[in-house]
Specification:
Blueprint (H helix, E strand, L loop, with lengths): L2 E6 L5 H8 L3 E7 L14 E3 L5 H11 L5 E4 L2 H9 L4 E5 L27 H13 L2 E4 L2 H7 L7 E2 L25 E4 L9 H8 L7 E5 L11 H8 L5 E4 L7 H7 L2 E3 L9 H8 L4 E2 L8 E3 L2 E3 L10 H13 L1 H18 L2 H19 L8 H17 L14
Parallel strand pairs: 1-2, 1-4, 2-3, 4-5, 5-6, 6-7, 8-9, 8-11, 9-10, 11-12
Antiparallel strand pairs: 13-14
Helix pairs in contact: 3-4, 4-13, 6-10
């Protein structure tokens, strides 16, 4: 039997790559319309919500839910729609969603996100119900699991994660671009919790000569905490050159073109950029916390990313070593590639995820939660009151999916 999974939203193409590699499950994605839609990887089995109106989105999901066995979400925006539609849903946590959750008034660690979403009591209560109502909560990263286990004692840990090998591999033809000096590629978002301020401080301490190709990918400038990023943009180091946002299926051409890749400097464990670049056999500079060990084949494994401190002085030292020593960068590239190849092995990853979905389906049997009617109505009223009390109504009283 094939388990039919409805994916609401798709952060960093996780649902799309699941769809591609799973063997016992099929995945249909309903995605949020956004300004980056044209640069995302769009699967054959994917559609979009008609608008950002939350209740219209819930109605759309209710119309199609009978075609599926389970629901899978990768963001709070997707989770709250699944919750309001009264589904049996699984939350897969990526990024900082569980490290700075919307149900915590002052989320920690503050070095990842400067402030909470500034939700009021009703909103925080609502989002805690969203978390508690999930049939399973999964973390695909040691640091995320450590955060998740504080709120869900039954948290599931699946360290293996898919990466699309067809898109990200060392045989991808590089872009045609003139290179005059050692070149780093930095495709990650230009945001505080990625550590861009630390990178800028490190650049000022470097002794070697290089340039950095940074993608112009910015968060909402009105979001609280982005003042630091605004200040950074006023003092851009001469080594940094900005590139327009790149289509996802074109990113690997920049990886293979570059001499090395700059990753994030705050989270302490590798994300999508670091995994993708490593699979293209490029040395990746990424702050890795040695306490963040991966559980692979029953053995705890330490990732080989460097540096192991995110102090600007240590980042600068690593940058200089990468630029100046071919032997050092070749060793880093080899070690990182072998680690990520094991971490993302498609056969082993498909085995872990297929078994997980099968276990969930056997336990719950249906995508429908079948809550009491009044309980479901209460959840909708709670959500509405939380947003009204926070002045989150815009013209014509449309409740949008954005925070």
């Amino acid at each position: 039997m094939v388990i039919r999974i409805l994916a609401i939203g798709d952060v960093a193409n996780n649902s799309e790559v699941l769809r591609k590699y799973l063997k016992k499950s099929s995945v249909h994605i309903v995605q949020f319309p956004n300004k980056y839609s044209k640069i995302q990887i769009l699967g054959k089995n994917e559609e979009f919500f008609d608008s950002l109106n939350i209740f219209e989105s819930v109605r759309k999901i209710n119309k199609i839910k009978d075609r599926f066995d389970l629901c899978f979400v990768t963001s709070w925006a997707g989770a709250r729609i699944a919750f309001l539609a009264d589904l049996n849903y699984i939350i897969f946590f990526v990024g900082t969603d569980i490290q700075a959750p919307p149900f915590v008034k002052k989320p920690e660690p503050n070095n990842l996100m400067l402030s909470s979403f500034n939700h009021n009591f009703l909103e925080r209560f609502f989002y805690k119900k969203v978390l508690d109502s999930a049939i399973a909560c999964v973390a695909g990263d040691p640091s995320l699991y450590a955060a998740l286990i504080k709120y869900r004692k039954d948290a599931v840990r699946i360290d293996r994660i898919f990466v699309d090998y067809e898109i990200f591999n060392p045989d991808i033809k590089p872009i045609e671009r003139k290179k005059t000096k050692f070149t780093f590629f930095s495709p990650q978002r230009f945001v505080y919790f990625k550590g861009m301020d630390l990178i800028f401080k490190a650049i000022s301490l470097c002794k070697s000569e290089f340039e950095i190709l940074q993608v112009e990918w910015f968060d909402d400038p009105s979001q609280e905490g982005n003042e630091i990023m605004k200040d950074l943009l006023k003092n851009i180091p001469p080594q940094v050159k900005f590139l327009p946002v790149i289509k996802r299926d074109e990113v690997a051409k920049y990886y293979t073109f570059a001499d090395a890749v700059l990753g994030q400097m705050r989270s302490g464990s590798p994300g999508g950029v670091e995994r993708e670049a490593a699979l293209c056999k490029k040395p990746v500079i990424h702050y890795y916390n040695l306490n963040s060990t991966y559980l692979l084949d029953g053995i705890y494994v330490t990732a080989p990313f460097v540096p192991n401190s995110n102090e600007p002085e240590q980042i600068a030292k690593t940058i200089d070593m990468i630029v100046q020593s071919k032997e050092f960068r070749d060793k880093i590239a080899k070690d990182e590639y072998e680690f990520v190849r094991n971490l993302t092995d498609p056969e082993k990853t498909a085995y872990d995820w297929d078994n997980f979905f099968e276990t969930c389906y056997k336990k719950y049997k249906s995508i429908k939660k079948n809550s009491f009617f009044l309980a479901n109505q209460f959840n909708k009223i709670l959500f509405t009151l939380g947003y009204i009390s926070h002045w989150r109504i815009i013209k014509k009283k449309i409740f949008r999916t954005a925070y």
